[in-house]
Amino acid sequence: xxxxxxxTLMVAWIFHDTRVDHPVWHHKRxxxxxxxxxxxxxxxxxxxxxxQFYPHHPSPP
Length: 61
Prior knowledge:
- By secondary structure, this protein is mainly alpha-helical.
- It has helices spanning about 1-25, 45-50.
- The model has no long low-confidence stretch (mean pLDDT about 85).
């Protein structure tokens, strides 16, 4: 019984989060030179790593 209730709640939670995130996914786009700010932390390292997966934007040497 508890498993069934938890499963139902989990599905509802995932559905809700997906609906909330949909506008973000719908409007996302690649920016070749995105802005940085001091609150970004190590995002620059991540962005350099992720760049390798964009074939039209080759990795830096």
